[in-house]
Structure formats: structure tokens, C-alpha cells
Amino acid sequence: MKFRHNDGVAVAAAKAGFSAATGYRLAQDAQLPSQKNEVRARRRPDPLAEIFDTEIVPLLKEAPGLRSVAIFEEMQRRHPELGPGVRRTMERRIRSWRALHGEEQEVIFRQAHEPGRMGLSDFTDMADLGVTVAGIALVHRLYHFRLLWGGFEHAHVILGGESYVALAEGLQNALWAAGGAPLEHRSDSLSAAFRNLDADARADLTRRYDALCGHYGMTPSRNNRGVAHENGSVESAHGHLKKAIRDALLMRGSSAFDDLAGYRRFVDEVVGRKNRRGGPRIDAERAHLQPLPVSRTSDYEETIVTVTSTSSFTLRKVFYTVPSRLIGHRLRVRLYDDRLDLFVGGTHLMTLGRGRAAGNGKHGHVVDYRHVIHSLRRKPMALLGLVYRDQLFPRDAYRRTFDRLDRASARTAGIQDDGRVAGAGARARLRGGTRRHPGGRPRRRSRARHGGAAHALRARSGRVARGRSHARPALHLQCPARRGGGMSKLAQPIDAQRLTLILNDLRLPAIKQSWPEIAARADKEGWPAARFLASLAEHEVAERDRRRIERHLGEAKLPPGKTLDSFAFDAVPMISRAQVMAICAGDGWLEQGANLILFGPPGGGKSHLAAAIGLALIENGWRVLFTRTSDLVQKLQVARRELTLEAAIARLDKYHLLILDDLAYVAKDQAETSVLFELISARYEQRSTLITANQPFGEWNRIFPDPAMTLAAVDRLVHHATIFEMNVESYRRRAAVQRRAGAGRPPTYATIKTVEQSSSSDNQTAT
Questions:
Q1: Distance between CA atoms of 736 and 700, rounded to whole angstroms?
Q2: Using CA of residue 613, residue 615, residue 621, residue 624, what is the dihedral sign?
Q3: Can you give the pTM of this predicted structure?
Q4: How far apart, in Å, are the Cα atoms of 453 and each of 401, 447, 450?
Q5: Are 324 and 373 in contact (CB under 8 A)?
Q6: Distance set, CA 745 to CA 603, 730, 750, 765 (Å)
Q7: What is the arithmetic mean of pLDDT over 587-600?
Q8: Crossing angle of helices 452-460/396-431, nearest 10°?
């Protein structure tokens, strides 16, 4: 009421935080509701007065677990006059009754956790996200690891079940990503880790899982079977991670990925963002983790298989083909979750993608047509009934083409066989009977003469006429009018729509768009086939070059407008245009991993020349990335904190030339300079680097705090390097001086001889 001393009712009520109507009511009656003895009566009759104590309370006592909505539906069946508006009243009444008279509930006790004490593992199903890889739905799980105190998380895409191989690979990846191992590793009752026969978890361990935990110095443990909340620290994290991945997929706009590696990088990026949010706490826990051993232990199963005469072997109900030269050999197979490594003795042969049997018990197939195509060319009819025929075709277009040819061959062979048999019968009737040998025995007509189409039918089923076993059966279209040399009635002009589909399968978009125009011109001018085909191929190659250059220009991030034509070579006399043009070809120095270093004061055109060289190299087919050194160093620092520095540096290897602009502006910080040195070391003699700097090598101790690191960096950069010293007056300063001098005065450019006088001229200009 103190606001009423100076303000009206409405203003005082607004300041007090309630409505004006309440203010007027209190102004009329200053007594608070709590100070009144009488209790306000109900404004309408209680709809549950007759049934709550007599019917609802007995139900609650008899079945405490009944939901409120179930009780409401039962009351509506018993009393149809109850309307739907009573439901919320009944739910509130039941909730209040349970708070006063309900049973005691199970209590979850918050635990005091120690850093570095426990890590948890579990698998979660991800099939409901609708992820597709190469157009095929990806049925997969995530192995999920979490450090309990700091919240560090790691996820690994699993294609199969909750096997020991998946557990070992995912757990080791997580430990090496975390940089250490906790004292205890907790999981649920995984069959890959526990036999689930003994109540004692230690006695119930599988031998392999016990050895895996012992290798990292962890004590294995599990939660009680059937009690999910004991592993709640990772179970609840499943839901948060799946929601984060679902949100990221929605932000991406698509759940389709070109390959499995791309999807795994996507998951790693999502998990990395979650770890960045808890970075300080995770870094604090890393100091309490156990150090990792020298190397990883095995995360695979090993078995021995024998390659059969079908150039294959079967493992876990999956049929794998291998090169035929291995027939009869015994191979040692290391079985991972997503692949198989094959060895002969200690020599690694190859890696195969892992297949899995179908859910209905049918065998799976992992087939590479390159392993059997050389033999199939000699036995083409084996393709008709081949067990793994559908898996043999590289793409679905090949299968559709084969099915069409197969149907056309069967139809053509049937027409020929019916027509020739009818013709032979008519000729026999005209001759008055069967032809006979001179000795009186009937002559049997040669199958080779009458059975062209019938022979093709028998060849399709693998039966060749007697006496013609040397003939090689082949799948082809036979022409009914072959003797006359005429065209087959089945031969039709190429359908333009089918040609479009074929060109899509062959990934020839330029030919798909241009072939009608080029074909019309070829028909009009009478081109030979070779010229027509060469024109199509040249058009496709030119279009691919154009798209590649556009793509490389987009990823290069070059500053706009910086070309060799706009670079003033006359203002930098120590730079030879001919030498720069030779550098822009890039054939020699980029292949050798040589470097290019541009020194000079600010404004001398270093960045312009570097960007112009990068643009020319892109036009010549090379890949370039232009970046400020400080920006790239910051990104590499983030990658180091996320334990992905090696992968981040490896991704830069796809660029033939990395342009680091303004090297001298990197802060003299141990973290920044260390990642910069690792980048220089990784690209040494492997990939080329172009560096612009306004300080000579003698001043680089201001960049690298360690003299030994400075010497090592300079040594690697200079070993195979071309160095340009662009000691000229600043272009920006020169332009400002010209504007100040006004029109009519010729511009003055610095030369090599006048470099030493630049400081004095600066002072004179300033005055």
C-alpha cells in the first residue's frame, strides 16, 4: 500500500505487480485474504463429490500404478453423464490424493564422482534417423563412450551388432581420443564382455574383454541386470546425442551421404561440438586419467579360411570373392566391424568390405566383378544362373540391360524355332515324305542346319548339340532374315529417353545436354562416326574442365580482382614477369613440393602477387588454398583441442599449394607456433607452400619463441624454395602521396637503388 501514498490506484497496482482490478478491490477492503476467517465457498457443485471417495479412491488403493487417464475413462464408462471437462479436475484430485496417501517411490541418489574415476560404454540404435549412404538405408548403431566426471563423449558408427569387435574398436578409439584411460570401465551386461552366467561380474568376464581392460589398466564392472538407471549417466546421454544428430541432419537439409566415411565425419563433428561446450571440465579431467600404453591392442577377430575353386570363401554366412590366383590358398582373415583384412602368412593382401547375412537366414554376398570377369568371358552363359548374378553388376543399369537382352534373346529364339520347324514340315509334306539315304534308311537332318534358334535355346540352358561341343555359346540377338542380310524386325532406333538414362549412369551430363544438337549437325554435314564421337568427347572434357575450375576457385578463397594483368610489374622491378609466368605453370616445383617465399614491407604487393599466382595455377589445373596465417592457426588450435590436429593437417594435403598470407602476424604463443611448425613439417617435400612475410628470416625469432624451432622451420622452408624480396615503397602510401600532390606530377616508383633512401623520403613527405 505504500505506492498509494504518491500514485493512483492503477499506477500503484502496476508497480506492485498485479492488475488494476485487484488494486481497486484492495483499496475498498484493505484486509488481506489470509487475515479473513471465512473460507471462500465453491462457486459450482463438485462434479466428483459422489464418486471420488466411493469409487476412485478404492481403485487407487487397489492398483497404485493406474494412470489417471485410465481411471477417467473407467469413470466415463460407469457414469456417461461425466463430460470431458472433468478430466483435468480428476487428474489434479488424484495427484493431490497420492501426495497425501500414495505409496513411497524409488529414490535416485546423486553420487559424488571423482575425475578420472569412471568411463561408461553402451550401444544405441540409430535406424530411426533415416540415414542413407549411396541411396541405401543405413541400418546401424552407435557405440557411445562417456567419461562420467568431465562429460567427454565419443561415438563410433557400428554396422553390425553389439559384438566384441565393435566394443574393442569403439572403446580404444574413445580412449585414444580422450588421451588417457579411467580407472574403471562400466557397461551393461553386454554378451561381448560378460558371459551372464555368474552373479559375480569379475568371474563372469569373457577372456578377451578382461585382457582388453587389463591392457589399459581399467577395472571392468557392470550394472545389475535389468536395472537401467544404474547406467543412466550414458543412457541419458544417448538421447541428447541422438537429438543433436537429428538437429544437425535437419540443419544440413538432408540425411543422404555419398559414403560411410562422410557420415562418420558428420557424427564426429557433432560429438566434437558437444565436447567443445564442456572443454574446460574435460581438460581438467584429462590430467587425472591413466597414461595410455605404447600401442593399441587387437580389436579384431582372426580366423583361417580356404579359397575354393569358385574364387571365393564363406565366412559368417557371407560369400566373399577374391582374385582367382588365390584359389587353394589358406588365408588369415582379421574380422573387423566394417571390413576384412586378408593375409597370406604375414603379408597383407587386400581389404574387403564386411557383409552380413540377411535377417531371414539367407547368405550375404560381397562380390567384385574384377575377380571373376576374366573367366566369365570364356563362359558367358554361366551368368544366366549364377547365384550372385545381381551382386556382380557394377551398377543397376548393367543389370537392367542384361535382363532386357535376355528377354529379347528368348523371344527371338522362340520365333526362329517355331518358324523353321513349320517350314521344315511343309517342305517334307511337299516332297511326299521323309528323305532317305540310298540304302533305304531315313536321313536325319543335321541339327546344325535346322537348329540355329533351337541351338541358341539349348545354349541358354547349358546344353550344346552333339558334335558341336566346340562351339562357344553366347548371348546375342539372332536375326530371322539373316540369310537375306536384312535388318531384324526387333532392331529399333535408340530411344532418346533410354539414352538419357544411360548417360546419367555413365555420369556424362555434358553429352546428355549437347548430343541432340551435335547429332543434328553431324547428320546435316555428313560427319563420319569418329568425328561425331570426338566432338561429344571434347565437349564433355571441356565442360568438366570448366566445372573443375569453378569448384577449385570456390574452395581457394582467393581475394577478388588480384590477377597478373592487374599487377604492376614496373612498380616492382626486382620481379621478373617471365619468371612469374614460369612459376604459374607449376609443372616442376609443385610436383617436387618446393616452396615460394615473398618478403617485403607492407603494401609492396605480396598478397596481390600470391593471389595472382594462385589464380593462374588453378586455371592450369592445380588446387590452391589462400588463407591468412593467423586464421588457419586458430583453426588448427581448435583441432588440437579436439584431438583431430593430424586429420586437419591431412585434409590440407589435397591442395597442391597452400598460401599463408602475413606470416609475421602470428602471435608469439607456444600453442600457435607449435601447430604452425607441425604444418610446415607435414608439408615439407610433400606439398608446396607460399608464404608472404614482412620480416626477413633474421626476425623470425619474434614468431617462434624457441630458437631451435625457428631454425628448423626456416631450414624446411628454404631447402626447396624460390625467394622474392619485394623491397619497394608501399602501394597504398604511394597512392596517398599522389593524391596529395595533385594532378600533373609524374608518379615516383621505388627501385632497388632507392630502397635505402626510403626512410628519409618518408620523413620528407611527412613534413
A1: 30
A2: positive
A3: 0.44
A4: 22, 10, 8
A5: no
A6: 22, 18, 16, 15
A7: 84
A8: 140
